[in-house]
Each structure stands twice: as C-alpha cells, then as structure tokens.
Automatic annotation (TrEMBL):
SUPFAM superfamilies: P-loop containing nucleoside triphosphate hydrolases. Residues 36-266 form the ABC transporter domain. InterPro entries: AAA+_ATPase (IPR003593), ABC_transporter-like_ATP-bd (IPR003439), ABC_transporter-like_CS (IPR017871), ABC_transporter_ATP-binding (IPR050763), DrrA (IPR005894), P-loop_NTPase (IPR027417). One of its GO terms (molecular function) is ATP hydrolysis activity. It comes from the Bacteria. It is a peripheral membrane protein. Belongs to the ABC transporter superfamily. Drug exporter-1 (DrugE1) (TC 3.A.1.105) family. One of its GO terms (biological process) is response to antibiotic. It is found in: Cell membrane. One of its GO terms (cellular component) is plasma membrane. Keywords: Antibiotic resistance, ATP-binding, Cell membrane, Membrane, Nucleotide-binding, Translocase, Transport. This is Oleandomycin transport system ATP-binding protein.
C-alpha cells in the first residue's frame, strides 16, 4: 500500500516564510548593538589555522548556536571571545568591549562553561560556589546566599553538602553551569555543555538554558549535535575547518538544502537504484540512499508528481512517498560535504 505524508511546516506553523541565508555576521535590528560580534577572526597554532576569517554575531537575550564537527574551530572561537586566546587577525566585541583593548571589562560581563565539568570534586557543591563568589569579591554572607540561590535554581539544594565527586554526570554539569552564573553574567559561553550526558540530563540542561535567555542572558552555545542546535538556537553559525560556511535561523538553513525533501521507498528493494537514478534526473540534484529509502531535495512542489510519473513509466511501485522539511543534518551535509554528529552517533561511539 502506498502511503503519502507531507510535512513542510516551518517552526512558526504552516505557510511560514522561508528565506535564503548568506555567509557573514547576523543582523537583528537597526540601532541595536549585538551582545557578541566578531569579524574576520584568524587564529593559528604553528602551521595549523584553527580559525580562518570567522565572523559571527549574537543579539542580546538570544542563543547563538555554533555548529560544527570536532576540530572545526568552535572551541578556539569561544576562547578568543572569552579573552583566553589572542586572535592573530580580526576584531571581536563582547558586550560592546573589544576583547583585545578591554579584556578586563569583557571578563566582568561573561561566564564560561567548558566541555567538561570544571568544579573541584573534593569540595561540596556549596563550597564550590562560595569559593567562586569570594574570588569575585563577594562578602562571605553574600557569597553563601548566592550559592544557596543557585543550588535551589538548579535543583541541587539537597546535594549542596556533598562532595562534588559523589555527583552524577548531570549533577556535575548543573553545578558547573551554576558556577558560571555566580557573577550574574550578561553573556554566557557554553562550549559543548552536554558532552557525555544522558538524554534526561541533556534535556534538563536545555531547559535551564532556555530559562537563562528568558531572563535576558545572551548565550553562545557550541555544539556538534544537530538536535541541540535545532532545539536551542535562535540563530546558527555553521563552521567547518575554521571558516563560517553559513549563518541563519534553523529554518533558514534548512531552506538552503531545499525547502523540503522527497523520500521514496520502493516496494521491491532491488529497485532502489532505479528510484535513485530517476529521482536524481528529475530533481537535478544528487539523491542520498539510506536503508532502502531514497531522498532528494524538493525545491519545486511539482517534483513529487513528476517523479511518480517517471517511476510509473519504468514500472516501479512505491511503498512509501513522503514530502517533509529538510533536516539540519541534510543542511550540514549540503554545506560541508560530510555529516555532523547526532546524539545517537555519540552513544554508539562510547
């Protein structure tokens, strides 16, 4: 039996307008300075170029997702913006301050969480947060009050008196995120914050990030996980081999790989090559084949009936025919020539 399903809705519902994107800084309104802005960043380590003219921008109170595979330059970009590395070329403003000219002003505005929990595992949760608050100049009473506030916010009050080494991975990441918020930063850098987390802990962290932006915090989130970028980011910068290859909203980027994707599965598995050939010829684009299903970008709504007619002419019957939105995975493949990492990929690699 042939089943036909269509799903070409945008994030904002049916009929949402989709636009093409361009490589370069993002723009979020006239006269509103971005919370983060970088132009032409270059960083070299010997003969290796980690950043090759990267430019990006994040509006205040939004999440900017920096998406790319391992070694793409995401962490290097984060460290430059957080004043931990000096760029060889280019300019970056964070909170309106130049990272080279006023690094101390930048540091007073930001929080940073790396790929792995950076808390002291010998100290309790409370002691970790109080220590950071004291290092930031808070008086003892204020430091303890801030620690208690954050422990409650992140669901760690009952564990506050335990050593951090007794925490689960998800609890340590929550404590690490709480530690980055002790100084009430306006801008938060999260460098692959869900690395190594199970799905439940990952979803908890996602919820916390959304709460932060609701409070006006700007978040730059680096990730190699497509699901994470799609779930959290207002805008995405796709970076590969140190260069920005595309910018835009998740829906904008999906439009770059074709507003929709036509998927076909023939009744007879041996006819998959025929379906791939016909679909590619009609669409004028290279199809992909995965587990007996052929996918091809559908830039024109007339593609589906045209392909069906051609397949009927050559005697191919379809068990399934689906028109759906392009995924970020397909976008990444179209832009870089290789797939990014999914959460399932990460679990299989462990």
């Amino acid at each position: 039996m042939l089943s036909i399903r269509t799903d070409v809705r945008g994030r904002d519902g049916p009929g949402a307008e989709m636009s093409m994107t361009t490589v370069g800084p993002l723009c979020h309104g006239v006269g509103v300075p971005p919370a983060i802005e970088a132009e032409g960043l270059v960083k070299r380590f010997g003969a290796t170029t980690a950043l090759a003219g990267a430019s990006l921008s994040a509006a205040e109170g939004t999440v900017l997702g920096v998406l790319g595979p391992n070694g793409a330059g995401k962490t290097t970009a984060t460290r430059v913006l957080a004043t931990l590395l000096t760029p060889d070329e280019g300019r970056a403003l964070v909170g309106g301050h130049d990272v080279l000219v006023e690094p101390h002003r930048v540091r007073s505005l930001i929080g940073l969480t790396g790929q792995y929990a950076g808390v002291d595992e010998a100290l309790t949760g409370t002691e970790n947060l109080v220590l950071i608050a004291r290092l930031l100049g808070q008086r003892r009473g204020a430091a303890r009050a801030r620690a208690a506030e954050l422990l409650e916010q992140f669901g760690l009050t009952d564990a506050g008196g335990r050593a951090a080494r007794t925490y689960s991975g998800g609890m340590r990441r929550r404590l690490d995120l709480a530690a980055s918020l002790v100084g009430r930063p306006r801008i938060l850098f999260l460098d692959e914050p869900t690395t190594g987390l199970d799905p439940a802990s990952r979803n908890e962290l996602w919820g916390m990030v959304r709460t932060l932006t609701d409070d006006g915090v700007t978040v730059l989130l680096t990730t190699q996980y497509l699901e994470e970028a799609d779930q959290l980011a207002d805008d995405i910068v796709v970076i590969d081999r140190g260069a920005v290859v595309a910018t835009g909203t998740p829906d904008d980027l999906k439009a770059r790989a074709g507003a929709a994707v036509l998927q076909m599965r023939p009744t007879a598995p041996e006819q998959v090559p025929i379906v791939a050939r016909v679909a590619g010829e009609v669409a004028g684009a290279a199809p992909t084949v995965e587990q007996g299903t052929v996918s091809v970008p559908a830039g024109d709504e007339a593609l589906m009936p045209a392909v069906v007619r051609r397949l009927d002419d050559v005697g191919v019957r379809l068990a399934e025919l689906t028109l759906r939105r392009a995924t970020l995975d397909e976008v990444f493949l179209a832009l870089t020539g290789h797939r990014a990492v999914t959460q399932d990929d990460a679990k299989e690699a462990v």
